[in-house]
Design a protein that fits this description.
It contains no helices and 11 strands. By secondary structure, the chain is an all-beta fold. It is globular and about 40 Å long.
C-alpha cells in the first residue's frame, strides 16, 4: 500500500507561482506512471500533468508552458511547478502515483 501526501498549496496572486509536492511512502516501485489532477468546485477532476511509465509527459493546453511536473527519485517526491497562475487555476490539486491518490491541497489564485 502506498501513501501520498501533498503540500505546497495556498493563496497566490494572479501571475504568481507555487510549487506543489507529493511525497510517497510505502510499497513504491520504479517506473510508475504519475500525474497531477485538479478539481474546481462544481467541475470534474481533470489532469494537469501526466508522465507515463516510459517517461512521456503530457499537459493540457490550459496549462502547457506554465506547469511543469518533475520527480526527485532519491527522495520519492513528485513536484508540480506552476507559474503565471490564473484565477481559473483555483482548485484542489491531487497527485496520483503508484496507483494511489493523495488527499489534495488547495490552490487559490486571487487578488
Amino acid at each position: 500500500q502506498v501513501q501520498l501526501v501533498e503540500s505546497g498549496g495556498g493563496l497566490v496572486q494572479p501571475g504568481g507561482s507555487l510549487r506543489l509536492s507529493c511525497a510517497a511512502s510505502g510499497n513504491t516501485f520504479s517506473r510508475s506512471a504519475m500525474g497531477w489532477y485538479r478539481q474546481a468546485p462544481g467541475k470534474r477532476r481533470e489532469s494537469v500533468a501526466l508522465v507515463s511509465s516510459t517517461g512521456t509527459t503530457a499537459y493540457p493546453d490550459s496549462v502547457k508552458g506554465r506547469f511543469t511536473i518533475s520527480r526527485d527519485n532519491a527522495e520519492n517526491v513528485m513536484y508540480l511547478s506552476m507559474n503565471s497562475l490564473k484565477p481559473e487555476d483555483t482548485a484542489v490539486y491531487y497527485c496520483w502515483w503508484y496507483n494511489a491518490w493523495g488527499r489534495g491541497t488547495q490552490v487559490t489564485v486571487s487578488s
